[in-house]
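User: Could you check the structure of this?
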Amino acid sequence: VSEFIRIFKPVFENNKSKKICQNGKYDIAILRSYGIDVKNFYFDTMLASYVIDPDQKHGMDELSERLLGYKPIPLLDLIGSKKSPEKIFEVEPERLSDYSCEDSDITYRLYEILKETLKKDNLEKVAYEIEFPLVPVLEDMERTGVKIDVKSLNEFSKDLQILLDNYSQEIFKQAGENFNINSTQQLQKILFEKLKLPTTTKTKTGYSTDVRALESLKGSHPIIDIIMDYRQVAKLKSTYADALPDLINPKTGRVHTTYNQTAASTGRLSSNDPNLQNIPIRSELGKEIRKAFVPADKNHVILSADYSQIELRIMASICGDETLIEAFNNNEDIHRRTAALIFNVDPNEVNPDMRRKAKEVNFGILYGLGPFGLKTRLGISQTEAKAIIDNYFNSFKKVRNFMTDSVKKAQRKGFAETLTGRRRFLKNINSNNRIVRQFEERVAINMPIQGTAADMIKLAMINIYKALEKNKFKSKMVLQVHDELVFDAHKNEIDDLIPLVKKLMEEALPLNVPVVVDTGVGDNWLDAH
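Assistant: Sure, the predicted structure tokens are below.
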């Protein structure tokens, strides 16, 4: 290893030579573990493929077969099994050399093709200004990790178990018998044979009891709400309260999530081990998980910086609706303003229930929410739901135009795109199959908004990372979840850090309406939020 470092450290740390990789984050992480700091990371063929068409496969073997018509030596030919990567050290140097040289050769050939495609499709900005520069940022965040309070998680797990036991008893009472709640078949028998509830979608094993099926049964029997609560608590317990302590790295005492840049077609990041994007933050119980994310030590606090209603602001900016723009320019409560318009009352007369309904409509419209969906979410009649949506479109006329135009544009071009030019192809947007077509029509409306929000936070992360490095801050950016960034902030730097983060997030991607970032500081992630 020392011989390798002696030879290659000057090569990788040479700022004059451009580095081209396939899955560069992995390479940078490995080399950094050996004290080699890769300079001038220039191009990533995996990410270039993702930018060109996010729904394709981006592995080197797939890219090689698709673009070069060549099947590379599979890694399993060398090590025999996925489960024993350490066998790589037993492979003869000649075979290892052939394999490695082929990898490098293919990566360079792919680069020559992909760089031209990026240019031809006007995707250079997305690749060179967003995805490629984000790689070292994510590698640093993964390496830093975040501290977890195991004691508070263990306490929380015990509380959840008590809740589960209570829910179980309530479910058995409603069902009139004890059964295995986690067994799909036993649950089907209770719901559809014993309680004679309306049947849901037919599957291979009977009628569906998944989340969507239970949503459609809400209101038909008290057991449904209790089962849904039970499932949410069971998931929280197994996925977070019980699993997070096992994911703590014994060397660092922290949890190190892995960010994936090529998983979501919209441009959003995903994460795994643990999946931080899925922590249910709407429920009070879900919020409790955040309490376990704590600062490094007594000299640090958690800083949370969150884009305020960013998707609504992006929609207002793109569609140019005067009423929405005016509300944001005047820093009004957008849900109160919406409620006043759709219920035809003075803003001062808007009650919490009206505001709640307006909030569901504001966010739901972006995802193609119709009367049936709104009826289910709000527990109102379909007639009332339809009236609310009609009033919404009468109040915000340009929103409807934006939705219609987005679909027409996607039908013409074959893809939807963000403000930066990121694309998602919609191969079935003109399909004769109504269900398939309608799904892609919803994507055509939502992708420009959700994708632009993803681009905005990625640009902010790059700029913040550079600023922290340049000014030699001790504070570190440790988490990215949806529209929020979380920092392990040194107490001595907090007064400089907050305005810096706020400024760089708000200026990352200018809109025609103000971009607002809310910040909070606390002894854990929940308190900071």
